[in-house]
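Recap slide: Phosphodiesterase/alkaline phosphatase D, sequence and predicted structure.
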Amino acid sequence: MPDYNRRQFLSLMAAGTATPFLLTFSADKALAGLSRAAYPDKAPLPLNRTDPSAVFDLSVASGDPTASGVMLWTHIRSEQYDPGESLTFQVAADPGFTLLALEGKVRGEQFGADRDHTVRIDLDGQLEANSYYYYRFQYRGVFSRTGRCRTAAAVGQAVDSVKLALLTCQDYTNGYYGALNYVADDNSIDYVVHLGDFIYESVGDPRFQDLPFEDRKIELPSGFPVAMNLEDYRFLHRTYRSDPFLQKAMENHTWVIATDDHETCNDCYWDYEQDTLGCPDHPYSTDPQFGDNADLKRQLKLDSQRAWAEYIPARIDINEGRAHPHLYTRIYRQFRFGDLVNLNMLDTRTYRTPHPCGEEAFLGRYVPFGCGNLNNPDQSMMGQTQREWLINSMAASTARWNMLGNQTYMGRLGIDLGEKAKLPFNVDAWDGYDAERLWLMNEVQSNSINNFVVATGDLHTYMASQVKKNYADLNPFNFSNQVGVEFMTPSLTSAGLFDVLLAQAPDDEVRDFLLNATSEGAVRLTNPHIRMFNSKDHGYSTIEYTDDYCEWIAYKVNKNLNSGEQERKALARYRKYEAWPWMTQKSVQGY
């Protein structure tokens, strides 16, 4: 019987959460390193051995850092798959792989067609804290490109700073990922946080996509304009991951990724009456041929969850035997970076209740004239189990900063109707779940959760704002009303807010009114807690934490140019000092 050490045994037992593997080398066991002589091919292959993409067509990625590991990911081109061939992976302290830390092997049957030839290696417990490593894979004599990953600092370990890139809403059909070239090349970034809409389920929905780029068009295997099944979702993930700038950014950094609605379907929620996915715009809800079938929608959620788990390097449990999406997996999770940052990534789509004012596409889910259900205490964005997990996680944290990875805008966003009347602009966001928002603010304060920072995506807008308990209280010196700050990162490529308004407004009068009401000047006048509002540009942002402050910088990059050389421009820079409740604006000169 082989003499496996404890870590090797645990690796073999990882089948429920990641791809099972066997460690063949660790730094405390001086075995031979990886070599072509040690792992010969069974037979010559009709491919270019100097081209990694001939086998590893979607390159490599890493994610979900802990103090002792990361998740590694790769994909094998289906034409090159041989169930009798094992895959080898290698982790080293240097890019030349002379300082080998780990080597392991995955049997061919572990990444077959049932997993769409994806490999997810969980190295938790194998690596040193707060360290950079380099990794690569070898299959059938071909090496993948080399990736660089980083583990987290141990809980309580002193850390000078943590800098995160913030991304969201990267509709492949709506532009190019040149901004990711800046993210990839920025060595000051420690980790990348993606807040959702990593893929879009739609490939020709006129509310979101006008398809201006011939080389970015997508045709799904099902022939529908939206994903209908597992094959469609897998196809979308493969298409998105084929982008060279996205590949480069995922090779160079370790990512933490959440989901929003478009990983499944637009404005999705959970229909608790039918115990199925709420998918108000999907053919399974709107097309008579499908009959509003609860089983089809429940399966759609499972299919999207499975494809996401296969293609995202996330450390999540998969319960293969479970047919209910709430039992199949759980993606909300916590990350801790030394003594500095406690990051909690939310899932605000899987468990949320339906929209408070109905599912009518514009006047129900976004601008609900005359709706009186906004303060309903039964409305929930997170669900009870996730709510309790979140508060317990933050209350137990000893880190200086508590950060929330959140999908939709948490603050109030109202539009002025005159005579001091205000109307929520988007009840698909937290304005539609006001009672739970107030509960969360009270819990944050009552548990002495200080330095509360919310990072948000979804609205395709740059925004910097104060987080408050009572937005009607305009007294800046009422410190008990100041809970934290919120920074919204813009869409990477997805259609801007104004474009969406133009596409969805029911008539010209409503469109013109909303365009005026959501201009930056009108928004800031009606919502004085909002310090910055820009919904016309695209790009990304960064947030850096130190003992004394956190600093958010918003960058603009042209999504219409398929190049990594176009100009990057810093649009705004805000700093929240640790000992002060408000944010302050800083100069962007030099950034």
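The domain at 6-150 is CATH 2.60.40.380 (Immunoglobulin-like).
The chain has twelve helices and 27 strands.
(End of recap.)
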